[in-house]
Amino acid sequence: MLKTIDGLARRLVGSSFLYMRRFLFRILSVGPIPNHIAFILDGNRRYAKQRNMTEGTGYRAGFFAVISMLKYCYELGVKYMTVYAFSIDNFKRSQEEVQYLMDLMLEKIKGLLEQESVVNEYGVRIHFVGNLKLLDEPVRVAAEKAMHATANNTKSNLLICVTYTSTDEIVQAVQASCQEKWNEIQEVNVNQSQNAERTEEKLELDHIIKLVDIERHTYMGLAPDPDILIRTSGATCLSNFLLWQTTNCLLYSPKVLFPETGLRHLVLAVLNFQRLYPHLEKKKKQF
After folding, report:
1. Is 134 helix (H, G, I), strand (E, B) or coil?
2. Is the pLDDT of residue 142 over 60?
3. What is this enzyme's EC (predicted)?
4. Cα end-to-end span (Å), the chain
5. Strands 228-231 and 36-40, bridge-based pairing
6. H helices within the chain, ranges in order?
7. Which tens digit of pLDDT belongs to each residue from 56-78?
């Protein structure tokens, strides 16, 4: 009997929270809604340390916070959510911690593909972003499988930055742009007799690398620039994350550790974005 009452009470509380959340999001939707929110998941290890838990427990708690944020972003109408899950610099940590993170990543990727997962419930398309060649092969294969399995989902997008740094992204984008232009030059040289009317000056202009060329070859070229970047634990540095894409992005830094992040922090970030929206839009038009 007590178990039945307890279960009923939990369902009522959960239902009440859901209706409250939807009502709150309807109010927020009166103003501009960010199209893309990015997260730096800072504080997982400190969360575990403060509670005398293992580091692994902190990372697992962080994963559940990611899933909650994904649900909230979807319900609010945010089309793109990006999380900084694993930096190339994280390879400098102990071998045991790196291996644990790889194993956890593999476990959670498989979990995301389950029929009852939030990805399938909300029609989320998954993108793994970064230098994926650096991943352990089982993780890389699982990531590719997840991207393929969700390729037809169109309601929202989850971008997971793994083995990623912004400097690596920029270097590879420049290299890819140079290679593309070199291939074009080679093709023109082969067909030079057929294009004799084209002046040397025109050919030179065609082969100059432009800003759009580099942007097209960035890892994040598949998504619009973020409107809000949320970094938890109160830190205000970007830690080599989305340096190219955050020129006109609002940085929000709540003091909570990432596993403690909740609905109120997302709401405050969006309210701050709406308050500064005219200024942010004006800055975008200046570029």
Report:
1. helix
2. yes
3. 2.5.1.-
4. 65
5. parallel
6. 2-28, 44-50, 55-76, 95-112, 118-122, 137-149, 166-190, 200-206, 211-216, 263-285
7. 899 999 999 999 999 999 999 99
Measured over the CA atoms of residue 142, residue 143, residue 148 and residue 154, the dihedral's sign is positive
- 201 pLDDT exceeds 70? no
Q: Could you tell me the CA-to-CA distances from 152 to 196, 218, 228 in Å, in that order?
A: 45, 22, 26
Residue corresponding to tokens 């609905």: 263
Tens digit of pLDDT for each residue in 144-159? 999 999 999 999 999 9
Question: Phi-psi bin for 43: left (phi > 0), alpha (psi -120 to 50), beta?
Answer: left
- Positions annotated as catalytic residues are 42
* Alpha-carbon distances of 201 from 36, 178, 190, 198, 204, rounded to whole Å: 41, 19, 18, 8, 5
Residues in the chain: 287
The owner of tokens 């956890």 is 104
